[in-house]
Design brief:
The protein is α/β, with parallel strands linked by helices. The protein contains 14 helices and 16 strands. It has helices at about 5-15, 20, 40-50, 75-80, 95-100, 110-120, 145-150, 170-175, 195-200, 220-230, 275-285, 325-330, 340-355, 405-410, and strands at about 25-30, 60, 65, 85-90, 130-135, 160, 180-185, 210-215, 235-240, 265-270, 295, 360-365, 370-380, 390, 420, 440-445. Strands 3-4-5-6-7-8-9-10-11-14 form a ten-stranded parallel sheet, with no helix packed on it. It has a two-stranded parallel ribbon with strand order 1-2. α1 (about 5-15) packs parallel to α3 (about 40-50), α3 packs parallel to α4 and α9 (about 195-200) runs parallel beside α10. The longest helix is centred in the C-terminal third of the chain and has 17 residues, at about 340-355. The protein is globular and about 95 Å long. The two termini are about 40 Å apart.
Length: about 450
Amino acid sequence: MKSGVRLKLLRRTLRERRALAQLVREIKVPRLQPEGQMENPKTIDLVASLVMACPNLERLVGFYSTYSHCFDRLTHALSTRPRLREHIWIIGDNAAITERSLKQLPPGLMDTRQTQDFLHFHDSWHSLSTLFLCSQKQGILERDVFIQALHLLPALQHLCISSFDVDDFDDVTLQSLPCLQSLRLQDLEGITFWGLSEFSRTKSARCIKQLSLVNLDITYLSAISNLFLHLKDLSRFTLVQESSPEVAAGDLVFQPVVASLRLQHLHWDILVPGSANQNLASSIQAGGFPNLRTIRAPSDHDGLLQSVCRPRAQIVQASDKYSKAYRAGVDGTPGSLGRTLFAARKLAQQRIENARASPRFRVIIEEEGVVQEAYDIPGYMGTVGSQIAYNLDSDAQGSDSALVDFPDLLSGIKEVAPRDGCTGMWNASHPAGKKWWNHTERFRYRAMDLGRFF
């Protein structure tokens, strides 16, 4: 069968059976071209016609086209679905905007029509609760457009912003965000520790329950401390960066350095060793996190965070032998595997084994002053009585990375791989053979919940 034939058959069915089309809430579109190739305009138009056939559509899954501030039927079709609950903007570069950027500085790189068109797409999304904004290939979305678009969505609760330039998203834009429950900020050069501290004091930040800060290079630990102090409802926090946030010179240090009364889940991944892990471990021991139940620290230098968690007998998994790092024969020394969970589990297990090799207690049984028996109780890694679990599992099943990232969502390479999935020859036993009817080979689809990003 030719590419897209099944989508055309589905479209015909939905157009002929309007009652059935009104029941459709989610469409999963297969990846019709390998990763890295430009989207075929005919494919975009085909998916758009499928969207238009479903008046009550809430989610379009598996097909995310790039928006380059030019009209395309798919973006227009999605903008007409009033019950849409989630959308992913992938902002690509535009030739006219790039040309203007060589002659002038922002703002004003987007012309009036481009700004109005982008804002107009949000007019009907009164039920949209999840929004992703990601820049690819120097895609531009100016500061004022950010602020206006986000405030056009009354039901918005979960927001992810990634990879925009300092002129597009900075501390000023951060202060203007609406009230949210979940927020992920990733690879944003315009966000500073000062901006995060000021954001923590705004009214819109008080309702945040899940906050993820990925590759923002926060300089000082005071920014994180202020977030914990003012975000009273924060239950899940993620920090991923290379450098270690330190206590500013001259600041008085009191324990706990950082504290949160309601935080339950903490992902703490700082690649370069520094004092941040020690400050966090000391804060936990000082009672700064009374409701904390889970810590995930792939870059736990010297096991400082593992030592304040509940002891575990084993942390490696049976599936680790199928890891790419295991097959490559890479050792588990710190820093040799970056942030892979295989390395983190291997080092954590080594700390457990080393602690077990040294007796922690000795039990001596005496009778009438004579030693009859003596038992050595092996040591353990952790704190007995701690309510915190030390977790090194991935958010995406089968992944060596702890966090779900945009490549996991946007990559279509697995769906065009011919190994694990339907080969398209389910009826090869027919007398006419595979020439009678077959279809393109498809990789087995694995659903990706956008909630895992937060």
